[in-house]
Design brief:
Blueprint: H1 4-7, H2 17-29, E1 34-35, H3 47-58, H4 71-85, E2 95-98, H5 100-112, E3 118-123, H6 129-135, E4 139-144, H7 154-163, E5 167-173, H8 185-195, E6 201-205, H9 220-223, E7 228-233, E8 246-249, H10 252-266, H11 271-283, H12 288-308, E9 321-325, H13 334-345, E10 347-348, E11 350-351, E12 362-366, H14 371-388
Parallel strand pairs: 1-10, 3-4, 3-5, 5-6, 6-7
Antiparallel strand pairs: 2-8, 7-8, 9-12, 11-12
Helix pairs in contact: 3-11, 4-11, 5-6, 5-10, 12-14
């Protein structure tokens, strides 16, 4: 049998996920290492959500369930999306639950793409996007955002869409992993004006929507309801990465197609996780607030520490990442520097080039880490810079 990796477009096989795992594993296996690689909240899931899961177990809610997800959960999620983002989805036909946004991306791309299609992906980007596209034998076309402060501009978007007729979908993510940039409503309106002119799907991964620091998140789905598949979930907002809860929303016909793939791949999301998610969507409207306040403090300290060392970061409006440009006078090879930091300073951070085009010469630091780790990281980076600048 053919290895599925061999079936993929060779360009796409350059998957960096394994390399990220290697960094993580090295950091974890050495307790002395400060680990700033991890893209998940370091807070416990709120108690009321955990109790709902315990109740589901006690009540034997432990059997197969409908693939689209429990209808009470979907109704609660629809109300939550309405109250938070003024979105209006019919929970019976326009929404399904997925195993996190990860499966949401996979099933959506399977539903939307065919062999030979192209998919437009702003880069640097979340590492699964390219390989996921490759599974459908589609080709990612990367839009390098590094020359525009890591934001897609309407001009770039129009130029690329007008010259690539094979593009079937635009896979967008904001607040953005790995750069932390986000988009204001006027910026999104300009992008939507371009996207509306093309017969393409917009897949909008808004998993970090509740982690914004300066302006309230505005959903692209609000501007392009007929074209957009919105992917969101509870991993980042409610510190629920291990529960695997995602939501895919969009026009009825495409959601039905995504649900078919989702059913083939998963049967359904765990009933226990769904019970927890129902509670989160019903009674966890403000759960993110204390975590967000803490992330903001960490971000400000890390940002100021990095700036003092001459690292430049694009404005981090959301998520929990800083994407720092390596200062002049240091070797610009981000992979070599990240390896060196790990081996000599005991500091694990990820090279920007792991996130694809436009990422070289940068380092990604996750501040979903304790304040001690953040202060320790600044100190270690300071030592490194002192020793290596203009060496
Ligand atoms: N989308 C982006 C942009 C991410 O950064 C991540 C995780 O880091 C995910 C999706 C995964 O989300 P989930 O836990 O819902 O699968």
């Amino acid at each position: 049998m053919k290895n599925p990796i061999e079936l993929m477009n060779p360009e796409v096989v350059a998957i960096k996920q394994q390399e990220i795992f290697k960094f993580n594993a090295l950091a974890k296996s050495n307790p002395g290492v400060i680990n700033m690689t991890v893209g998940e909240p370091n807070f416990p899931t709120p108690d009321h959500i955990k109790l709902a899961a315990i109740k589901a177990i006690e009540e034997n809610d432990t059997r197969y369930t409908v693939p689209e997800g429990d209808h009470e959960l979907l109704r609660a999620a629809a109300k939550y999306l309405h109250d938070k983002y003024d979105l209006n989805y019919d929970p019976t036909t326009e929404m399904i639950t997925t195993l996190g946004v990860t499966e949401g991306v996979f099933s959506t791309l399977n539903a939307v793409l065919s062999a030979g299609d192209e998919i437009l992906i702003p880069a640097p980007c979340y590492t699964i996007y390219g390989p996921d596209s490759g599974f459908d034998r589609a080709t990612p076309v990367y839009l390098d955002t590094s020359k525009s402060e890591f934001k897609v501009t309407p001009e770039q978007l129009n130029e690329i869409l007008s010259t690539h007729p094979k593009i079937k979908a635009f896979l967008f993510n904001y607040p953005t992993n790995p750069t932390g940039v986000s988009y204001t409503r006027p910026e999104l309106e300009k992008l939507a004006d371009v996207l509306r002119k093309y017969d393409i799907f917009v897949i909008s991964d808004e998993i970090y929507s509740e982690l914004t620091y300066k302006f309230k998140h505005y959903s692209l789905a609000k501007l392009l309801p007929d074209q957009t598949i919105l992917l969101n979930g509870l991993s980042k907002s409610h510190s629920m990465t291990g529960w695997r809860i995602g939501i895919a929303c969009g026009p009825k016909a495409i959601i039905a197609e995504i649900n078919k793939i989702h059913e083939l791949a998963t049967t359904a999301v765990s009933t226990i996780s769904q019970a927890a998610a129902t509670e989160a969507y019903k009674n966890g409207f403000d759960d993110t607030k204390p975590m967000l306040d803490e992330y903001r403090k960490r971000r400000d300290i890390l940002l100021s520490g990095l700036e003092k060392l001459d690292f430049y970061c694009p404005i981090p409006d959301g998520a929990f990442y800083l994407f720092a440009k390596i200062p002049e006078g240091l070797n610009q090879d981000d992979v070599a520097m990240a390896k060196d930091l790990l081996n000599t300073e005991g500091l694990a951070i990820l090279p920007g080039s792991f996130f694809g085009e436009g990422g070289a010469g940068h380092l990604r630091l996750s501040y979903a880490a304790s304040m001690d780790s953040i202060n320790g990281a600044i100190e270690k980076l300071g030592d490194y810079v002192k020793e290596h600048k203009n060496a």
